[in-house]
UniProtKB/TrEMBL annotation:
InterPro entries for the chain: COMMD9
Taxonomic path: Eukaryota, Viridiplantae, Streptophyta, Embryophyta, Tracheophyta
Superkingdom of source: Eukaryota
Protein name as annotated: Uncharacterized protein isoform X2
Length: 155
C-alpha cells in the first residue's frame, strides 16, 4: 500500500475546519513533533481506531507542507504533488488549504532565518591556480599548487 493512500483518512474528518486544524497543528509542531494530546485529538477528529494509522498520514501531510513552503509551490504545481491515487476532491481541498497558509508559513520561515543569526559566507568571485612540476617523472610525483582566491562582499 502506498503511503499516499493514507490521505484518504482525511475523508473521515467531520469538516474542512478539522483538516485545517490538523495542518495548522502540524506546522506549529514542526520542530517538536506532536505530543500525545494532539495525537489523541487527531485520532478523534479522524475517527481512527488505531493510533498507528495516524503516522503514515502525518508523514504525507508533512511532505506536502514542506514542499508547499520550502519549494514555494504554486497552485498548479501543488496539484502535481499528489499521486494519482489521491482522490481529486481531496487534492482540491488540500491545495486550497495549503495555499491559504502558504504565505503565512513562508513568513514564519523568513522570520526564523533572520532570528537564527546565520553566518553568511562570502561569495567566491574568482579562483585561479598554477601548478609547478607538471612534467615530473612518474617515480617522482611532486606538484606545487598556488591558489589565489578573490572574495566579494555580498552586502
Amino acid at each position: 500500500m502506498s503511503v499516499w493512500k493514507h490521505l484518504a483518512l482525511l475523508g473521515r474528518a467531520n469538516s474542512k475546519e478539522s483538516i485545517e486544524y490538523i495542518l495548522e497543528a502540524l506546522w506549529r509542531t514542526r520542530k517538536t513533533g506532536l505530543d500525545a494530546a494532539d495525537r489523541q485529538i487527531f485520532g478523534e477528529m479522524l475517527q481512527l481506531s488505531n493510533d498507528s494509522d495516524l503516522d503514515p498520514l502525518l508523514v504525507c501531510l508533512r511532505i506536502l507542507i514542506r514542499k508547499c513552503v520550502y519549494e514555494n509551490a504554486k497552485k498548479d504545481e501543488m496539484q502535481k504533488l499528489f499521486p494519482a491515487e489521491v482522490q481529486p476532491e481531496l487534492q482540491r481541498l488540500l491545495t486550497l488549504l495549503l495555499q491559504k497558509f502558504q504565505k503565512e508559513w513562508r513568513e514564519d520561515i523568513a522570520k526564523e532565518d533572520t532570528a537564527n543569526d546565520r553566518v553568511i559566507l562570502p561569495q567566491l568571485r574568482a579562483m585561479m591556480w598554477t601548478r609547478g612540476n607538471e612534467r615530473s617523472e612518474i617515480g617522482d610525483p611532486a606538484a606545487i599548487t598556488n591558489l589565489k582566491v578573490q572574495i566579494s562582499d555580498r552586502s
